[in-house]
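For the sake of transparency, this paper describes our internal protein records without simplification. The record that follows is passed on verbatim for readers who wish to inspect the format:
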Amino acid sequence: MDPGRHKVAYAGTAHGFCMQITVIGHAQATPDECEAAYTTGRLIAGNGAVLVCGGLGGVMEAACRGAKEAGGTTVSILPGTEGGNPYLDITIRTGLGHARNVLVVLSTDAVIAVGGNTGHSRRLLSLSRPAVRSTG
């Protein structure tokens, strides 16, 4: 990680930067996946990192809810011009459709995939920095 990269993006820590971690997963997630995402979001926020996601429902909403309830900051990179889930602090509306997923993955320091073992998430993880897969 290049610490200087985040100095402007978030100035709320002792050193003027913090880690940004992406959580990816299905918008139509199972209850177990949502529970895992919620816990992941709480842990991300509890460790002082910013949670980044695609901003929609399912895994993304559960992770954001966990982060917000733990006092964290959430950033979404949305596929269109819709408003996203109710737990978002910063929303970037791209109009890029699924192509925005590359931005979601490449704009952060690490990626956590929650849930299904799909080809889509495997491809995204192959683009990312350090990556972890949770099966929910």
About this structure: Confidence is low (pLDDT under 50) at residues 1-15. The chain is about 30% helix and 20% strand. The longest helix spans residues 31-46.
